[in-house]
Structure formats: structure tokens, C-alpha cells
Fold each of these.
Amino acid sequence: HHVVINKLKKKNMKINWGTGIVIAIVAFISFIMFFVVTMTTSHNANHDLVTEEYYKAELGYQKEIDAEKNAQIAPTQIQLKNSPEGLLILFPEGYNDTNVTGTVSLYRPSNKNLDFDLPISLSDSHLLIPDNQLLDGRWDIKIFWKHEGKDFLHKESITF
């Protein structure tokens, strides 16, 4: 009598193992299928838009990288100088108001509301950002300009 119960227990254990594994695999596959179907049919997970935006951003970064390289290999570099009137941006010789277009963007890491962009309008190859527009502290500056069909980008952090 005792032996028969033990045999049954052993048999049940074997069946339970196998069945357990099969059930686990089936459950796992069902979960994955459910997940895939939910993701593909759900409108919240509209990933097409995300990728389009991502590639746009990616192109933007590539343009920035190229423009930065152009600025680095230019024979003369832009210089930033603090002056009593404000921040002076000195363009290299040969740049003047007729052949340069672009923008200067100033970012304030500590306060987004202070960020601003200025169009580049040069008088004798330098640009002055008046003191009253710049609060003391750290500013990240991006100068993006076009000259003779080429894009240039200069990035710098300054403390004013």
C-alpha cells in the first residue's frame, strides 16, 4: 500500500515537471504575443512619429558637427571678450556685415526663461551683446553663421 503511493507520487512529480515547463513556456509566449499585439495596435505607442523626429534631430546634429568642424579648421577663430559695455564677439578679419548671416544663441543653464537668440548683424566684424541683456553667471553660447555658402558653429561656455 505504502509503495503504491510512493510510485504514484513519483509519477505525478514527473508529469508535474513536464507540464509545469510546458505551461511556463505557453504562458511566456502568450505574454509576448499579448505585448506585441498591444504595442502594434495601441495608438499611444505611436512609434513612427518618434523615429521621424529622431532622424530629423540626428540630421540636425550631423549639420552641427560639420559646422563645428568648419569653424575649427578655419584659419582664424572667433573670440569672445568681456567688455564694460557687454560681451564682444570678434569675428576674424574678412568677415563683415555683407557676407555673414546667422544667429547667436545664449542659454542660461540655471534659468531657461533667460535664453535668447540674436540675429548676427555685424558692424566692422564684431558684434556686441549689451551688458543689460546678460545677468551675471554662466552662459552657454552657440554662434551659428553662414559665410560664402559654408556653415560654421562656435560653442563656448562663459561666466559673465
Note: The chain has a mean pLDDT of 78.
Amino acid sequence: MLPEDLSGKKFNEPISRGELAAYLTNVLGLGDDGKALSNPFNDVTESNPYYEEILLAAREGLLSGRTADSFAPNAAITREELACLFTRAMSKAGHSYSTDRSNWTALPEASVTMNTD
């Protein structure tokens, strides 16, 4: 059975940066009061359904803004962002992962440099 917030989600469609911030902050149990956090993003307002989760994800270093003051909450998350986010989430959850890049040459994004710090 799918959790209620995933019910009806079409998994073959892009997911927004805001949606993924919400899913991961909930999975990782980071649910303190995000409204109390300072908001550096001009494009994330309290009317955004993922407002608190976006600020929590940014505070925890899971996702950063696309610029210093823009988060792009409704933009589809890219594969590069997703890979970085999952790496950071695994670290946050205390899991180890491999940074062996020897098999990456087969990926279309192989020429893209990813910062996993």
C-alpha cells in the first residue's frame, strides 16, 4: 500500500524539486518546524505546499537552491540533482555508498561533473 501522500502519483512523470524535498525530509524524519527557519529563496513562499520541507532540506544540505536566492520548487528535478540528493540522504541516514566512477562512462551524463560533497 502506498503512503497517502504518494497515492495517485504518476511515477512515470517528472517530480518537482519541492515534492522530492518533502518526500525525503519526511522519510528521514526531519520534521521539525520549518516555518521557524530563515528563508533565503525569493521563489519559495509560505503558500507553497512544501514550504517547510524545502527549508528543512536546504538546512540539512540535501538540496540547495539553483542560485543563492532561487530554489525553483516547481522545476522538475534533474538526474544529476537526484543523484546528489540521494547521496546526501544516504549519508544523513548513516549509510555508506561507493564513489567508484569506473562504470559511469556508459551514462549519457558521464561528461557532467557532480559535486557530491
Note: The first helix runs from residue 17 to 27.
Amino acid sequence: MTTRYTEDHEYIKMDGDIGTVGITAFAQDKLGDLVYVEQPKVGRKLAAKEDAAIIESVKAAAEVKAPVDGEVIEVNEAVVADPSLVNTDPEGAGWFFKIKVSDVAAVAKLHDETAYKAMIA
């Protein structure tokens, strides 16, 4: 499974042409405790950098953007019911949605872990 990162602090974990999208631990730390999550609808087609999910924390509201073009095939209802999952495990159980990626090659243009860590350093 390959993981790539955006400049907006989303990650996408690829398994074939399916990507699991969430926010990084860095982003979660900056936002603080999440209190609300609004997911995109299954079947929604997203363009890269398009707002997909809405999150609210005790500090701010933010959008989770689509890292690449694709169609939402699944949402994580657990984070809607319990947004604190994003706080405790942002890059694991706290994922937001899965997309069927339109162009898998586009994922390679995102930051790898080394480049992402350098960016946030």
C-alpha cells in the first residue's frame, strides 16, 4: 500500500485504484479536537483539490480536499458518529472516505513521506 500526501495535509493510501483519504497527524494536531464531520455522498465525482468533507474542531472549521480526481465509493460513518477517532488515529481508523481514482498515475505526483516530512519540518 502506497501513501502520498498533499500540501493541504491530506493523505491518500492506495490499494490498486482505490484510495483511502484522511488528514495527517500534523493537520489534526493543528486543528485540535474534532467535534463534527460532514462526509461527501457516495457516488460523488471529485476533482483534485475539490472540497470533499467538512470538519469542525474546537479551534476552526476546515475542508478535506480530494487529493486526486475520483469517485467516492465509501465513507467512514464511524468518524461522523465519533469525530474523536480522527484525533486518536488520524492516519488509521480516523480516515474519511475512499475514492476510485480516475488516474492512478496522478497519485505519484503527490508528496511521498520523505518530502511531506521535509515540508512540515
Note: The chain has a mean pLDDT of 97.
Amino acid sequence: MRVRIKLDMADVRTRIAPSPTGFVHVGSAFGALFNWAFARKNGGTFILRVDDTDRKRHVEEAETAIYEGLSWLGLDWDEGPDKGGEFAPYRPSEKLQRYKEIAKDLIEKGLAYEKEGAIMFKSPGYDFEWDDAIRGKITFPASEVK
């Protein structure tokens, strides 16, 4: 079975998801720049999602530093914790109950299973294949998707 997805560039949604554990580092800035530029070039949406799942290292002031750092780079975002948007909230910690509901539903439908406290997707039994704009055709054989 082969699944093909045609992407309409008007539907482009890119994001950056820095962790509020300190200042924006060069890797996050690099990723943000490419995702922002791709969204802007294609009339899409650039999203800031604050990945606040590492509660032990969370620094309250770091979220403000993220906003300031990206703004200093000249990057603006269309949706995020400070702006809202159609798919709010933009912090994973604010969606935990929804994630639990989805995981339970996937398990009940036989699409996933629990292993050592983690929810694992079941392999659909067919190769994953797509055309990447940079690397060309990419294929992941079903045998490698566990």
C-alpha cells in the first residue's frame, strides 16, 4: 500500500519549539530561521510552541528570553503562547489531559500499545515513502517501523 500526500503550499505550517530552560541557542535560532523563511516564502504560518515538558529544568524567565531572542533576530510568529491561535494552547503542559485521551483512544482502536510506560504506535505494515524537496525520494521500510 502506498500513501501519497500532495502539499498545498498555502497550507504550510512551520514551527519552532524551544525549551524554556535558558536562552535561545544557535541551533534553535538556525531552525527558527529556516522554518520562518519557508513559511513566509509560501504564504504559510510560523508557530512558536514553547516545549515546557522538562519541568525540572524549567526557568520561568526563559520564556521571555525566547520571545526577545527571536524578536532580536527579526523573526515574528503568527501563533504562540503570547498570541494564541486556532490550535492553542501552545505549551504541551497545558494539553496533558488531551494527550492522555488520544493515547487511550489509539490503544482501544488497536493502533498503539503501552510498553514500559510509553505509548508505542503499531506499524501499519507498509513502507513509508515521500518525495523530499532536498533529498528526493525517501523510504522507510515497514520492517524498520516497530
Note: The helical segments are 26-41, 62-72, 96-108.
